[in-house]
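Q: Given only this backbone (392 positions), what sequence would you predict?
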């Protein structure tokens, strides 16, 4: 009887992974759309709006590519299921032919007389026993063949239903592809119009770019200075701490370091999307290069911000143009939460994972709500994205 190859299950896994990735991008696009709707309450086009729309365009392009791959995989799945159905129908034909031959053999053997006649007309007990075994074997074979036909037909019926479901799914995804193409075209047109509006007042646009770079440089400098102060303070104090305290610091450091890639996000995952990444990058619509020592996570107004790991609140301070900042230590590691509207912790407070730290700040000029998140080991900035759990 026909059996499914292992590649079929592998292909199904690929399709499942692809669909989860697609759902993740759809959630991010939805969040960015809501964030832009909030920001659009401002009368003038802003650089922040351009960054948000650029991120939306990127995600929609990725989504479209994912949908096209999904259509291809569904097409392969439909072809494979069609082949399975053909093989099953062929199997049923062969089984029925084999069963027919068995019935003919049985009919000729019995020749209109019952099996009991042949058993009781045996010349000896041994011959009777052998004939009884023979007729029992024929009966078993008949039952097996009938059961095989039944099970094959049931499996065939399931595969036919599966094929119709796959065709319907492919049709629905193809419809989504057409809609996404239209969405992308409309979004790119909106992107072009927004960029043109910003360029109309080039002086204001250039000023926004310079202000953005200046704010990022100032933020990096302020955080770096505070981290250096904390690290130096910790180094000086390390001479006076007890072995028990040193063991606690080592345990915290090891716990933090061993959980890389497993930390929760500073807000529930559906409510945040990364709009500026770690490292060097060019500001949209310009040749201005900035270097981020953390990531910007765009969210919605009033969003609660939470600790990604247990630790101690070391610093609470205002940062010019970036709201408030909280630094939490985790042994030799630090996490930084900047651009906060409000803070709900106090210096020296011990935090557990997911404890509230404050709320995200909405920029009064651009209408954008986001936080800036950093991770340090001693004085070295690390890519925060690689420490957070992947969005599913």
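A: Predicted residues:
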């Amino acid at each position: 009887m026909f059996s499914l190859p292992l590649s079929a299950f592998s292909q199904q896994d690929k399709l499942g992974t692809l669909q989860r990735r697609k759902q993740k991008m759809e959630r991010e696009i939805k969040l960015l759309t809501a964030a832009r709707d909030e920001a659009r309450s401002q009368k003038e086009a802003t650089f922040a709006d351009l960054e948000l729309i650029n991120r939306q365009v990127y995600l929609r392009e990725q989504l479209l590519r994912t949908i096209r791959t999904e259509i291809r995989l569904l097409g392969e799945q439909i072809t494979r299921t069609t082949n399975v159905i053909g093989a099953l129908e062929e199997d049923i034909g062969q089984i029925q032919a084999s069963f027919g031959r068995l019935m003919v053999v049985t009919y000729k053997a019995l020749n209109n007389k019952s099996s009991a006649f042949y058993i009781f007309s045996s010349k000896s007990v041994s011959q009777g026993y052998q004939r009884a075994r023979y007729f029992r074997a024929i009966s078993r074979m008949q039952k097996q063949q009938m059961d095989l036909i039944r099970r094959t037909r049931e499996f065939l019926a399931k595969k036919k239903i599966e094929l119709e479901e796959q065709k319907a799914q492919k049709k629905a995804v193809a419809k989504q592809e057409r809609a996404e193409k239209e969405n992308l075209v409309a979004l790119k047109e909106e992107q072009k119009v927004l960029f043109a509006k910003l360029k109309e007042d080039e002086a204001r646009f250039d000023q926004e770019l310079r202000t953005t770079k200046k704010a990022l440089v100032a933020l990096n400098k302020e955080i770096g200075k505070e981290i250096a102060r904390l690290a130096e303070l910790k180094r000086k104090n390390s001479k006076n701490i007890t072995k028990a305290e040193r063991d606690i610091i080592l345990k915290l450091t090891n716990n933090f370091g061993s959980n890389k890639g497993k930390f929760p996000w500073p807000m529930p995952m559906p409510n945040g999307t990364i709009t500026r990444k770690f490292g060097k990058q060019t500001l949209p619509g310009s040749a201005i290069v900035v270097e981020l020592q953390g990531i910007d996570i765009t969210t919605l107004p009033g969003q609660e911000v939470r600790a990604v790991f247990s630790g101690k609140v070391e610093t609470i301070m205002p940062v010019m143009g970036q709201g408030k900042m909280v630094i939490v230590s985790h042994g030799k590691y630090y996490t930084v939460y900047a651009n906060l509207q409000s803070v709900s912790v106090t210096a020296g407070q011990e935090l557990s994972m997911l404890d509230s730290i404050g709320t995200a700040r909405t920029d009064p000029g651009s209408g954008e709500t986001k936080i800036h998140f950093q991770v340090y080991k001693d004085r070295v900035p690390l890519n925060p994205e690689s420490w957070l759990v992947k969005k599913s």
